[in-house]
Amino acid sequence: MRIEVLSTGTELLRGRSVDTNLGAIARELEAVGGEVRYHATCGDDLARLVEELKLAASRADVCIMTGGLGPTEDDLTRAAVEEALHRPLRFRPALWRAIRSRFRRLGVRVAAINRRQAFLPGGAGALANANGSAPGFRLEADGLLLFALPGPPREALPMFRRFVVPELARRLRKDWDLWEGKAIGLPEADVDALVRRIVGKRATYGLTVSGGVVSISVRTGGPSRRKILRDLSMRVRRALGRRFIDAPIEEVVARLLAKRCLTIAVAESCTGGLIAHRLTNVPGISASLLETAVTYSNGSKVRRLSVPEEVLRKRGAVSPEVAAAMAEGMARSSGADVGLATTGIAGPAGGTREKPVGLVYTAVAFRGKTAVTERRFGGGRPDVKDRAATHALNLARIVLQEG
Amino acid sequence: MRIEVLSTGTELLRGRSVDTNLGAIARELEAVGGEVRYHATCGDDLARLVEELKLAASRADVCIMTGGLGPTEDDLTRAAVEEALHRPLRFRPALWRAIRSRFRRLGVRVAAINRRQAFLPGGAGALANANGSAPGFRLEADGLLLFALPGPPREALPMFRRFVVPELARRLRKDWDLWEGKAIGLPEADVDALVRRIVGKRATYGLTVSGGVVSISVRTGGPSRRKILRDLSMRVRRALGRRFIDAPIEEVVARLLAKRCLTIAVAESCTGGLIAHRLTNVPGISASLLETAVTYSNGSKVRRLSVPEEVLRKRGAVSPEVAAAMAEGMARSSGADVGLATTGIAGPAGGTREKPVGLVYTAVAFRGKTAVTERRFGGGRPDVKDRAATHALNLARIVLQEG
Q1: Can you name the residues that pair with B343 across neighbouring β-strands?
Q2: What is the ipTM of this complex?
Q3: Are A300 and B290 within 8 A, CB to CB?
Q4: How far is B87 from chain A (nearest CA, A)?
Q5: Best CA proximity match to B211, nearest among B237, B248, B175, B181
Q6: Pairwise CA distance, residues A246 & A180, whole Å
Q7: Is the pLDDT of residue B122 over 90?
Q8: In this complex, do A154 and B27 lie within 8 Å of one another by their Cβ atoms?
Q9: What is the DSSP string of B33-57?
Q10: Which pLDDT tens digit goes with each residue over B330-382?
């Protein structure tokens, strides 16, 4: 089944907004055995939309469109489908009643332009939108099965799950399986060599790198595919050893803490709250995470974390001694079992010859011992924050697994 | 000039990675008067790549490709260009010397497979990659000007700026201008009505919404375009009043603090470090941001922020009284001029009938007064964190502008 995703919206082509629908749609399709074969992004331009829809009809079996269903003049999906697939728009009284009653429920006056949203191409079925005012639609025409969904992910994705996935799952018959894992703290080329040697010709694999973590996916078909994947994954895990993780690093740390009933507190300097933000993205972390602090100023390092003033003066805020004192001070003052701390220079300013931008010290205090690392991360301020946060969470994991 | 961006990489079509190159390329092209007309994403599949390249050659003048230049077997850009544009690959001894010398400099052994990267289509010129081992190339063939860049943004974007932008800027002649601003705390439909009324037929405009902020862009051409935009933008700003901001909210807050030599400290509960993360993304914030804390547990609220235990017991952690006490306690204990605090229920668990998921109290303590708001945010855990952080930063802005 050749599936095309057509993302619409001039804001995507102008870099004002990033398309996250494609990735979410692709991942959920994969779970039921589908894959996105074609993807195009198209601005809010009628001629271009018609051109892309005709292209989709000529090369794909299914097209999932996102965007262009709002009430304003630059919402052109309905008109483009009308023209490309030769299905004149028709007013749907029941749909108009549903739109009006939604507005009434929310206590908002319905605008005259919203009436546009009650027109659908002939033969199309409306798809209800539980999280917004723009209804979607489903249409079979010119050999193409088309689903038109709104642009905002929180409207599009629930509709995709409710209306698109079940129908495509019925039509697809999944005949392959997938195993996924992650390697942390190892260059991509080394992971590639290791996975290639193990996988051989028994399966295909792919690697992607993000923020210092290499994601591995191994895929194979055939009747014994589950057995093959079990065997290959076991060997990859064994070869990677403690560099293997099976989930995002913050989830691994959260799971380790919960399993062992340990609490953690985090003192951040150069990572500026990113470790806290990542950990608090994990539901249920509140049972393990007592508190975190961003101690940007020297004063706050002394007052909150009892970092000795003399150490700050002699070694500077970016030093292994201060990282260790921050981790220990945070654990002590919060009463947490584990203290995690970072101090470094995120840039763009603040670097010196001895202490260049990207230099980061990380410390984990646990059971009376403190582990400290020194790393130099490349890239701009966001890269340094991202890599330093990943490294710090990984150091916490290693200490927890060993301690 | 019809510009196409062709993003390659199976990881993009499988939702393992999000394409951020498109947006960055689009924004920088716009600054020199170019716009992306076509965009497609293509997996690492030779036949598909050839098909997309032929399509690009048939509809575009310029194609900017990203990805597929690595040394491994799924890096197919060179082979696809060879086939689609009929330019056989040729070994380039000078390029191979450059690749080897780069590896030598890094003290890494060059692998035999890296030799593949020294083959380029006939007539192509190599583009040096300062941040990675994969060279790009530039080729004019079949009426198409093609730039092939690596996939990772930190390699692709510097090369795009160095090699692509200057050439395209020379060829383009910009004949329009753009004004951009943001509205915060107002529904999109209201912003739309307001901007539409002001802009009329004198320009075109677009709106995009993200995390409670509506971004507005107004564009027009003609000889008096600067004057028109000055007039329209002044009127939009005036109509929006204090709901207008000219930059991301964290930058606006950072600027206000710096201008008035004020310091801030942040106590977060439900936003879990996201306010700190956003503020610390602004270079130079260390002069204004004394410290932040994520006080997840009641104990840490009492100990760090001196929230009275009785208030916590009687009103619960998610209450206007606790938000106010957190903001005041944070300002007092850190010595900051401004104290900002959030407490709420990010979900998915923890909601009750009286205090549902998404309920968030925000407080700003400044000059002896504390402002508190109650809001109910929709969406999942990441949405609630995101919107609550935006709202909190905006409340700080309003208090600072008024106080």
Answers
A1: B361
A2: 0.76
A3: yes
A4: 25
A5: B248
A6: 8
A7: yes
A8: no
A9: T--EEEEEEE-S-HHHHHHHHHHHH
A10: 999 999 999 999 999 988 888 898 999 999 999 999 999 999 999 998 778 88
| Prediction pTM value | 0.79
To the nearest whole Å, the CA of B15 is away from the closest chain A CA by: 3
A212 neighbors A220 (Cβ within 8 angstroms):
no
For residue B26, CA distances in Å to B4, B37, B165, B194, B253 come to 10, 10, 11, 27, 28
Instruction: Please state the three-class secondary structure of A274-314 as a single string.
Output: HHHHHHCCCCCHHHCEEEEEEECCHHHHHHHHCCCHHHHHH
Contact at CB, A22 and B30, closer than 8 angstroms: no
Domains of chain A, earliest start first:
3-171 (3.40.980.10), 176-245 (3.30.70.600), 249-402 (3.90.950.20)
Question: CB distance A14–B25 less than 8 Å?
Answer: no
Q: How many angstroms separate the CA atoms of A226 and B359, rounded? A: 45
A-B CB pairs within 8 A amount to 241
Name the residue among A16, A25, A276 with its Cβ closest to that of B208. Answer: A16
With beta carbons less than 8 A apart as the criterion, state whether B1 and B57 touch.
Answer: no
The string of DSSP codes covering A342-379 is EEE--SSS---SSS-TTEEEEEEEETTEEEEEEEE--S
Please give the Cα distance from B28 to A345 (Å, whole number).
Answer: 28
Instruction: Write the pLDDT tens digit of every residue in B164-215.
Output: 999 999 888 878 888 999 999 888 888 989 999 999 999 999 888 787 799 9
Give pLDDT tens digits for B319-328: 999 999 999 9
Amino acid letter, B393: L
Given B291, B349, B383, which is nearest A294 (Cβ)?
A: B291
Element (DSSP H or E) covering residue B21: helix B21-31
